[in-house]
């Protein structure tokens, strides 16, 4: 009997020994980065990578806990989590007292728990900062390749718009507006990084060309919205690169002006008469104001406002019959009432305030990522896009980790 027990112990050591040597923290970061990259290309594979990242993170955290390690959070991160909890609690009533509680609550868990794990993993993961930098660069490089593929697709198919590596133009727009600032800020900043800064410039140009080829106007506006902040700080860091960047922007603007389809697309951004993509949204927003007045406190429930709008509030002026309001602020006010809207705006303002020290490159990256995200949010319900929100948390997490270093 004792021999059998001894043999079992020896066998367990042979099995557990190699497992203990596995670096689950590195596997977690690899899986998370792959998930963020491919989520627009294939959501099934992206979710699979994401699930593995969560599993590896759980194992690594448990091993650290068993070893007696204490997890530390800075005061800044603790305050940020508290503000996020406030935001989540302000939305919660609209999930519980929804017109369809089961559906709304499942979406609530997805929005505020499952996607937020991206930031939690990046904050708590015990891994060197060089690995975080490489993960961020890998994602930037992937989006640059996506941009080149989108550009090639536009030329080959001669279609007015191109998809690139995946589907969903508005998802692509939000992702581009969120990650583009990182590439150009890493190039123009004074710090030295693990790879030549010129690669960052090349990546940023490819991302912009992809945005132009996609024909998604919200991505153009999102990119332009961050440029004043980049140029302002870039002039302090490197006047030469500041003027070089200005010249590149002028050239890109010239290409858009000289290309009739692109010029027409750019002009249509402010067209709310003949362009029904814009006009119908405005009409839906007008009806949304009435809906908020009718149910102002907790709204109709997460993702229920669009259904009520089509049934009771849509006017003939909305020619398409929009199923949702294509605006994160309007959608939140309708779905979650003034409580949810206050929670959303509080969290956005605090996020921008947290990234207010622009003289640090990674802080500026975090700030501009949020600017790009909230600007695209004027054109679509970005908070409801899993790929867009996970990208935001990924860039936010990288910025916080690398700035603290």
UniProtKB/TrEMBL annotation:
Localization, per the record, is: Membrane
Q: Which UniProt keywords apply?
A: Ligase, Membrane, Transmembrane, Transmembrane helix
Q: Which GO terms describe its molecular function?
A: ligase activity
Q: Where is it chiefly localized? A: membrane
Q: Which residues cross the membrane?
A: 29-59, 80-99, 105-124, 136-157, 169-188, 195-213, 219-235, 242-262, 337-355, 362-383
Tell me how this protein sits in the membrane: Multi-pass membrane protein
Q: Where is the O-antigen ligase-related domain?
A: 203-344
Please give the GO cellular component terms listed in this UniProt entry.
membrane
Instruction: Name the PANTHER family on file.
Output: LIPOPOLYSACCHARIDE BIOSYNTHESIS PROTEIN PA4999-RELATED, TEICHURONIC ACID BIOSYNTHESIS PROTEIN TUAE
Tell me what this protein is called: O-antigen ligase family protein
């Amino acid at each position: 009997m004792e021999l059998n027990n001894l043999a079992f112990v020896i066998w367990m050591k042979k099995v557990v020994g190699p497992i203990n040597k596995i670096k689950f923290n590195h596997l977690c970061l690899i899986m998370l980065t792959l998930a963020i990259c491919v989520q627009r290309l294939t959501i099934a594979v992206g979710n699979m990578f994401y699930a593995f990242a969560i599993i590896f993170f759980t194992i690594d955290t448990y091993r650290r806990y068993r070893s007696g390690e204490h997890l530390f959070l800075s005061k800044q991160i603790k305050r940020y989590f508290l503000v996020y909890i406030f935001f989540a609690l302000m939305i919660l009533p609209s999930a519980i007292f929804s017109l369809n509680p089961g559906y709304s609550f499942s979406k609530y868990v997805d929005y505020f728990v499952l996607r937020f794990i991206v930031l939690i993993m990046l904050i708590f993961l015990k891994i060197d900062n060089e690995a975080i930098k490489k993960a961020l660069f890998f994602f930037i490089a992937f989006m640059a390749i996506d941009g080149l593929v989108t550009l090639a697709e536009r030329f080959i198919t001669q279609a007015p718009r191109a998809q690139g590596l995946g589907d969903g133009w508005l998802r692509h727009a939000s992702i581009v507006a969120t990650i583009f600032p990182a590439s150009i800020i890493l190039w123009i900043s004074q710090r030295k990084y693990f790879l030549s800064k010129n690669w960052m410039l090349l990546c940023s140009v490819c991302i912009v060309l992809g945005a132009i080829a996609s024909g998604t106007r919200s991505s153009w506006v999102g990119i332009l919205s961050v440029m004043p902040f980049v140029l302002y700080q870039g002039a302090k860091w490197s006047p030469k690169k500041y003027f070089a960047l200005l010249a590149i922007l002028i050239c890109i603007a010239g290409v858009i002006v000289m290309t009739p389809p692109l010029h027409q697309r750019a002009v249509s951004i402010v067209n709310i008469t003949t362009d029904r993509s814009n006009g119908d949204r405005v009409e839906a927003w007008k009806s949304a104001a009435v809906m908020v007045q009718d149910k102002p406190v907790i709204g109709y429930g997460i993702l229920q406002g669009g259904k009520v709008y089509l049934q009771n509030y849509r006017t003939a002026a909305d020619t398409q019959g929009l199923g949702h309001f294509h605006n994160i602020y309007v959608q939140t006010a309708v779905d979650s009432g003034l409580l949810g809207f206050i929670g959303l705006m509080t969290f956005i303002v605090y996020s921008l305030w947290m990234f207010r020290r622009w003289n640090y490159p990674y802080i500026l990256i975090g700030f501009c990522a949020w600017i790009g995200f909230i600007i695209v949010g004027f054109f679509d319900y970005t908070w409801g896009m899993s790929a867009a929100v996970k990208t935001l948390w990924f860039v936010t997490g990288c910025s916080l980790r690398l700035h603290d270093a």
